[in-house]
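Q: Convert this sequence to C-alpha cells.
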Amino acid sequence: MEYRFVKRWDTNTQIERWNEDRKSLNEIINAYNDWQIHHDFDIVKGGVLLALIEYGIQTLSDESSDYERELESMKLFVENCIAVKKAQND
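A:
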C-alpha cells in the first residue's frame, strides 16, 4: 500500500478563528496520518476515520475551500485504501 501523508496546517496566524479551525483540521490530519503509520490501513479504523473526515467536511468546509479540498482528497484516499484492503481479504 502506498502512503500519502498530509502536512499539518499552521495554527499561528493573525486570525484566531483560522487558528481554531486549523487546530480542528490538524486533529483530523493527525488521525489520518496515524491510520497509515500505526494502524496499517485497518478497515474498521478507516471507517471511523471516514466519519471524522466527513465531520470535518461538514463543519470546516464553509470556512475555506482549501480545507474542503484537503479533506475530500483524504476521504478519497481512505476510501480507495479500504477498497484495496477488502479486495485483498477476499
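The two ends are 16 Å apart (CA to CA).
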